[in-house]
Amino acid sequence: MAAELHPRSGKLVGLSNSNRTARRNQPVQEFNHGLVLSKEPLRDRDVFTVRIDKKVNSWSGSIEIGVTTLDPALLDFPSSATGLKGGSWIVSGCSVLRDGRSVLEEYGRDLDQLAEGDRVGIQRSSRGELHLWVNGQDCGPAASGLPPKLWAVVDLYGKCTQVTVVSCEPPLPSAERETVVRDEEEEEEEEEEEEEEDAVVCGVREDAGITALMNVAAMNGVMMGDEVPELSCGHSRPDKFPNNLEPDAVLTEHQLFDVFNNAIVSFYRAEDEGGGEEEGGGGGTGGSGAPGSDLSSSRNDARSGSRGGPSSNDSGTGAGDAGNAGSTGNANSGAGGGSGAAAGGLTTNDALLFHEKCGTLIKLSNNNKTAERRRPLDEFNNGVVMTNRPLRHNEMFEIRIDKLVDKWSGSIEIGVTTHIPNNLDYPATMTNLRSGTIMMSGCGILTNGKGTRREYCEFSLDELQEGDHIGLMRKASGALHFYINGIDQGVAAAQTPGVVYGVVDLYGMAVKVTIVHNHNHSERLRRNNAIMRAMSPDVGRPRPTLTPDSDAPERLLFHANCGQKAAIISEGRTALRPHATDDFNHGVVLSSRPLRSNEVFQVRIDKMVDKWAGSIEIGVTTHNPAFLQLPSTMTNLRSGTWMMTGNGVMHNGTTILDEYGHNLDRLKAGDTVGVVRKEDSSLHFFVNGIAQGPAAWNVPPNVYAVVDLYGQAAQATIMDDMVDLPPLPEDSSEGPTAMSPGSPCSVLGASAATDLRFHHLHGTNAVITNGGRTALRQNCRSEFNDAIVISNRCLRDGELFEIIIQKMVDRWSGSIEAGVTAIRPEELEFPNTMTDIDYDTWMLSGTAIMQDGNTMRNNYGCDLDSLTSGSRIGMMRSAVGDLHYYINGVDQGIACSGLPPEVFAVIDLYGQCVQVSITSSSGPLDNSLCTSNVTEKSFPIHSPGVAHRLHGKHGKNVVLLGEGCQAVRVGGYAHGIVFSAKELKVDELFEVRIADVDEQWCGSLHVGLTTLPPPELPSCPLSGFSPSLPQLRAKVTWLLCGSEVRRNGVLQRQNYGRSLDRLTVGNRVGVKRCSDDTMHIFIDGEDMGPAATAVAKKVYAVLDLYGRITAVSIVSSTLPEDADGVKAPSLSSGSCSEGEEDSTPVREAAGEPCATAPTAMAFLENHGKNIQLSNQKLTAARVSSYNQGLLVTAQPLTTQQLFQFQIDRLNPSWTSSLSLGVIGHSPDRLNFPSTACCLKRSAWLLQRDSIFHNSLKICENYGPNLDTCPEGTVLGLLVDANSCLHLYVNGMDQGVAAQDIPSPCYPFIDLYGQCEQVTIIVDSIPAAGGEDDDGRCQGDMEKADVVDGIKESVCWTPPPDVSPNKSCEYQGLCSRFKDLLTLPDGYFSEDAKYNLCYCESCRKLRGDEPYYKRGEPPRDYALPFGWCCFALRIKSHCEVSNALKKWHIAYHGTSVGALRRTLDHSQLLPGTSSVFSVAPAKAEGPDGYGDPEENSAPGREVLRVRLSPTMRYSGLETFAPKVQFRDPRSHRRHQAQVGFQVCVRPGSYKAGPQQTLGHGEPLDPRFSNSEIEWVTKEQGGTLLYGLLVRVE
Predict the structure, then answer these.
(1) Dihedral angle at the C-alpha atoms of 645, 649, 651, 657, nearest 10 degrees?
(2) How far apart, in whole angstroms, are the C-alpha atoms of residue 496 and residue 491?
(3) 3-state secondary structure (DSSP) of residue 111
(4) Distances (CA, A) of 952 to 645, 970, 1005
(5) Closest C-alpha among 495, 633, 618 to residue 565
């Protein structure tokens, strides 16, 4: 037979090379219509073999191959091979299909995993069986009973775009067989070596059994038999091996693998023989099962019956049909069954299935691969299923969610257990099992039913959807890993027992799952990205809320999944067609989330081209962009879509309105178009802000906005009120090199001195924008390489070429690569990656320096793979020919030497790195290259100094290397404490890099600050020293362990920043004591925020090389000596640091900050166009719109001068609010932009809770959120003597916001959004916390006490006018919950100003201290941070007034059901509160509080009420049980708790140890466990003060 293809083929196929080569046209645009057939029918035993010549990464799926009875000369070619009917057998992936229906799910090699150059063939044997051949190896029979006349079929599907027929002839004779067997022996020997390291059967190593297997495999290819006996505990190998094969039988790779694995795992089944004995006879037609062997269970899927070898079809039933029968797993050849040897007796039940014994509501199907919970709408549990055998090491157990119901809370749970299914009494839910079980539930890990890791991964199982995959794997090291849609979530448990079964709990919403054997992750990786984008910020687990913005609407952006010719830049705000002059369609982009009712989605047309007809189209669709296969133009979509095109409206591709509104085809660059779905389900469009009227009705909710960049429309940007729009491109008619608004404001402006740009020649997937300053990789989620960019000229000696990473994706491994080349761009044939070049090229990849594609040096000073968005990378060739790299301005040292004089800078946008821009730092480099422009998540920038060193006193297991720059733990897991050699200066960062880890240990690095001077320690080694840092008690020590902050080992804070437990080699960890007496932890250069307050002045950095971390090296250096200048006193500082005396009176600390008289401040006459000045230029108001409200003072801000202003008026019609900052140049010639975020020169901006420098974010989570400041708030700015900028809120210093502020500088205010009017305060106001004449918060004022560095005052409640109840989302949520309780309004104070929110943002606004004193005598109590207090109505008689002043403050947790009865009595009556907080107690004896009263009946019970001075105790769920509710506004589910703030009469209670919860670590650092619980039995001893509500 001729090895040619038939001339008739699919409509996208092109044939060449004498019809031997087939290529699918338009491989990036189309994925199917690539069907080709052989020219002639196949002869028996001929293998029709093709070679895969070319693949693309744009699609999932790949080549499909098979046979058909259909004559190609008469065939009407379908779009794919699976559409062939009338007698067709196709192998797709690892499945076999007959006439489009699956008959075998697990067969042979996975065709989707084949690479370019691999060969695949199809054969009809003389027995009528179908065989697949991959790279010369037979995969066994795939089907039987095939007709004699068949044509070969090849489908160039998905990734496969070109194949060539290489042969069509019978396989080689016995010589090939010997080669195959020899190859299989080598593979088995490699597996033997791996298994020898771990596998021990009943205490005896398996070497003998495995060696016997290999010997049998080498004997003439004869290795078949009728049973594989089990290994009992007394055997180290099988008793005997099969020996009844036909003499000329040849084992396939899979048969040999099955036998090998059977010998290893058969001992597992010695304890579980029931399944095999009961069903051993279900051998299928013409066969008999192996008697008494569980290995021949009829639950084997079709894989066992089809891959074992040639199956006998004398009985008339082939392996292909057997796959549907579901009972052919042991189709052994019996005595009269014919001459064919079947695989059932040879293979075990190798594929993982569900065990027959399962939960009472479980129904198994699909050969026990599918489990379904019966009555899912009536029952939510009793759905436990387990695997039929133990999991092997490194074996993936993966399931697919097939069905969910939207009725219950909670969903699927998955894990492992040591319990044997046959012996287990299945519980209702697996987390009820208290032994031998590890389960993933939600996003946490439960061991034996108890939570061991609350926040294990970013995904929550409760949020997964139908079609998502969940897997787990027990590694050979014993570590248990979980996988979500193919992505490893990390170690869930370090040590898992050796023999474990997989277990799935179909709980709650989860109804049906199927075991997945094809672990092809490509589609699941795509789904993962969609899931992560679809998840709200608080999905899966509670997260610490720093500001009320967590409940704010999610910003509208473009979805990353866009049309084939489109690209998304500017962090999702801008969409463009990079090659708009080459293509007119495939420019569809969708919003990243559904539109809310009445939410306007509006875009501005940035760029047009004149080549095409037609223009932008806009509309909505019900299709989720994460799963939508985007059409070439949106009007081609025939379902769920409404579009405005031209001046008409189309629904599902059909015109419904002809003459609707303004013609979109006539719009120009700068015009805007918008769409909104209103609450009445009508759809409206806008053109340049003008409503065009209703366009459609009955539009469903949850629709996504759509923009089609069609024809002339080349680029569009979303308009919103969060950040002002970037400027239009300078040349809107140019092609791909036209300026794009995608680059951030930090990149070089047009007036910069350097001429360095990216060259116009670049890799295939690269796009150059922004006048050559910005480079991006298009199709970043489908392409990971072919994106090399190069500088437009060679670098001069000493010239720095620096770029900033602007965008990254989590789709790939690997990241940016950077270097230089002597090859001119015009002579360079751009490869896939730059490390493929084998001459005149030097690159840094990860930590490796590579020359001409070969690694010449490892472990260079930086790791490019660890960089994040905002990091800067620079390259410089010195005058002597050395190559230096700079990370965020810090020289990493000489990378290599001997470079030629003329080299070009090269950037490879590889893997995760998607977009970069050339920075303004590029150009000639001087010796003082150190910028203050710190970027978000950047490496620390140090001034030149001497590298830090470690002190010679250290733990006994530590050895110091490299002159004290490296520390290595040489033994054990503890005794690894090391100190910095010197005290840390203020704002000096001490940072180390993880150099080595040992995975055999758990635990990780501890880092912190200590007042313990290392010179005072005894001689080294410190054998009597604390083994670990948490146990260090000699002096005050603040440290971070995992994600917990501790002080002297006592827990102070949980869930702080990233956990240190996840550190690995290359990660960097640093600690800094800041000028505001706080400790900050840095991880990979990112500030995690303040970890501890009131830190002493003289501290040393301290590290503990504990557990996994065995070696670190220092990467930081000391600050210059003059950096330790005298800091200006804080205006509101009334505290002193740990261990120091407070010799300064409090009122003096709040005095005038500078001796010189402050300059009178007023607003400059020049301002934004919407501003109107009045009141002698002290008051400014925005009179129209929401922007153009920029103000600058006419006078500069002198050092130590506090500039303050008050917010006079807010307009709730807008979102966002004011921002403020300083500029370092005169404002006289300032061209005022529309918003302050567009100030790009010498500007420091405070916006929301972030700080920006020249429009680039440098800090997050600073101070309160300015968007939540209510009317009356006083804001201020001050530059101290060290040129540090401070923000003041109501007189409270929020700490250093920015450094290196130039002098002079000018304050500016941007009246944006809600903020419409402000007034400068001429006289400074006192700090918040001053006296108030209101009886509710007025106590006996005393001088502030200072205890342990924490300032207290006597009963201070913030002034009512600074209560942020008008804008706090959290307070609004708590208020809506209170309304749901339907409590009478008469119980609550009529004046809502006394309702106080204690969320993070509100308390920062007021400047709340955590602890205060109250009563006579004064006693400490803690403010209820995280709760919201609703003031209760209080009678105004004398006794109550006295109680407010002289009684103590305490808290009482209760249940929702007890609220009404408690309020009815206006006090906490015994027996009326929650059953959790009122307990009967017998008289306790002479020393107890509960002594019997006089004249009381003997033995009567005394009811007592439990209180506490802190809600950390009273707010525990034991006292205040959580209830679920649905927010009537957002319709989201929340959990809520309630309690009371009460006044307690002194002497009516007794403070004692906690009785309810037992002993443990202190819940509140201020109160020890011996006094945290107050107990009272007196009626009238408590007065209800406020209702407390907390919502999660």
Answers:
(1) -150
(2) 11
(3) helix
(4) 75, 16, 19
(5) 633
* Residue ranges in 1064-1161 assigned as alpha helix (H): 1146-1149
Give the gyration radius of the chain's Cα atoms.
37
Q: What is the 3-state secondary structure (H, E, C) of 1345-1413?
A: EEECCEEECECCCCCHHHCCCCCCHHHHHHHHHHHHCCCCHHHECCCHHHCEECCHHHHHHHCCCCEEE
Spatial distance between the Cα atoms of 353 and 299, rounded to a whole number of angstroms = 8
Residues 6+ apart with CB under 8 A from 1495: none
Task: Name the residue among 1254, 1226, 1237 with its Cα closest to residue 1189.
Answer: 1237
Provide the 3-class DSSP secondary structure of residue 1492: coil
Q: Pull the structure tokens for residue 452.
A: 């061991």
Provide the sign of the torsion angle of the four alpha carbons 527, 532, 534, 538, taken in this order.
positive
Strands 672-677 and 1050-1053: unpaired
The per-residue pLDDT for range 993-1037, each reduced to its tens digit, is 999 998 888 899 999 999 988 888 775 555 567 888 888 877 889
The SS3 call for residue 203 is coil
Cβ(456)–Cβ(440) under 8 Å? yes
Residue type (1 letter), 780: C
Tokens found for residue 540? 């899966």
CA distance 1259 to 1294: 13
Phi and psi angles of residue 1236, each rounded to the nearest 5 degrees, phi first: -70, -25
State the number of CA atoms in the 13 A half-sphere of 456 facing the CB. 28
* C-beta separation of 857 from 849 below 8 A: yes
In angstroms, how far is the first alpha carbon of the chain from the final one?
Answer: 73
Q: 429, 225, 230: which is closest to 346 by C-alpha? A: 225
User: pLDDT tens, 803-825?
Assistant: 999 888 887 888 999 999 999 99
Q: Which candidate, 953, 976, 950, places its Cα nearest to that of 963? A: 950
HSE value, Cβ hemisphere, 13 Å, CA-based, for 1323? 2
Q: Which pair of structure tokens corresponds to residue 193?
A: 């070596």
Which run of H or of E encompasses 319?
Answer: helix 319-325
Q: What share of the chain is helix, strand, coil (3-state, %, to 5)?
A: 15, 35, 55
DSSP assignment letter at 1157: P
Residues 6 or more apart whose Cβ sits within 8 Å of residue 1028: 974, 975, 976, 977, 1006, 1104, 1106
SS3 per residue for 1457-1479: HHHHHHHHHCCCCCCCCCCCCEE
How far apart (Å, rounded) are the C-alpha atoms in residues 1405 and 1327?
A: 12
* pLDDT higher at 1090 or 1341: 1090
Widest Cα–Cα separation across the chain = 116
Check: CB of residue 58 under 8 Å from CB of residue 105: no
How far is residue 692 from each of residues 505, 696, 709, 1087, measured CA to CA in Å?
A: 53, 12, 21, 49
Q: Which amino acid is at 1306?
A: Y
1384: preceding bond cis by omega (within 30 degrees): no
Q: What is the pLDDT of residues 344-354, one digit of tens each?
A: 333 344 678 99
**Count of residues for the chain?**
1592
> What distance in Å separates the CA atoms of residue 769 and residue 606, rounded to the nearest whole number?
13
Question: In angstroms, rounded to a whole number, what is the distance separating the alpha carbons of residues 980 and 952?
Answer: 9
923-943 pLDDT, tens digit each: 665 433 333 333 333 333 333
Higher pLDDT, 255 or 456: 456
Residue (of 1254, 1218, 1249, 1225) closest to 1237 by Cα position: 1254
554 touches 596 (CB < 8 A): no
Helix (H, G, I), strand (E, B) or coil at 777: strand
User: What span, in angstroms and rounded, lies between the C-alpha atoms of 1395 and 1368?
Assistant: 12
Question: 1087: helix, coil or strand?
Answer: strand
Token pair in block for residue 26: 């338009």
